[in-house]
Amino acid sequence: MDLLQRFATGDLDAFESLFRQHQGAVYRWIVRIVRDPATAEDLTVETFWRAYRAHARFRPDGNFEAWLRQIGTNAALDHLRSVRQHVPLREDLPADPAPDAAEQDESRRAIFSALLSLPPRLRIVVQLGLIEQQPYREISDALGISESAVKLRMFRAIRILRKKLQQWDVRP
Amino acid sequence: MKDREFKELDKKLRDAIPPLRQPELGRDLWPAMLQKMNEPRVRVPWFDWLLAAVAAAVLLFFPGAIPALLYHL
Which stretches in chain A have pLDDT values below 50? Predict the structure, then answer.
């Protein structure tokens, strides 16, 4: 019996092997959504906990990593909903250098606030699709919706962001 | 929305919130996983189950109460 089949029967050793194989990938996906390493670690554990409890529903011929990513995205969405507008995105994580960041500080803050004010299901699409440049295919798989639904959410999010920035007199 | 406007906003967003650079997991999370698995499960008090059953029964027998309930939620 292979690892995934053993996992589907609830084998703890198989779960541990799969955990060690996939914890990094799940963490990387989640940290792109929540942008906070400690929260991403907690949510990675939560993701695997949910997966373990749902082991009987996993089909061993399916894509384990995609399944985990979907569970992780839901866990991250639950987190964003629970802390909505209370926790800002971390700015001190290693990131690509931002051109003219200093001179556009006010505009940055406005864009930050506008992004935080989006409903989590729209915000997640903007963060993964626009900021992190993840392929729409992966986002749609992780959210369990079609690619056209992802594009629609992106369009709606951009429209809301643009409107907010115009209200605050920040030129998008 | 015009394509140019979309691209401008896209650029502004990425300037304001730069993409993460290859975020890596700094430690093995298996011990935390084991700790979570060994935590005692949260038990729902019997009174909560009773309350949920009563609420479900009320909604079943008096469906007219659903809009009022939704309004107050």
Answer: none
A95 near B18, Cβ under 8 Å? yes
Q: Does the reported pTM lie above 0.90?
A: no
In this prediction the ipTM stands at: 0.76
Those of residues 60-119 in A touching chain B at CB distance below 8 A are 89, 91, 93-101, 104, 107-108, 111-112, 115
What is the CATH T-level fold of the domain A3-82, as seen in this structure? Rna Polymerase Sigma Factor; Chain: A (1.10.1740)
CA atoms within 13 Å, Cβ hemisphere of B44: 6
Kindly list the domain boundaries of chain A, sorted by start residue.
3-82, 103-167
Structure tokens, B40: 């005692």
pLDDT, one tens digit per residue, over A151-163 is 999 999 999 998 8
Rounded to an integer, what distance in angstroms lies between the CA atom of residue A14 and that of residue A8? 9
Mean of pLDDT over chain B = 85
CATH code of the domain made up of A103-167 = 1.10.10.10
Q: Which residue in chain B is spatially nearest to A104 when comparing CA positions?
A: B16
Cβ(B24)–Cβ(A24) below 8 Å: yes
The CA distance from A73 to A130, in Å, is 17
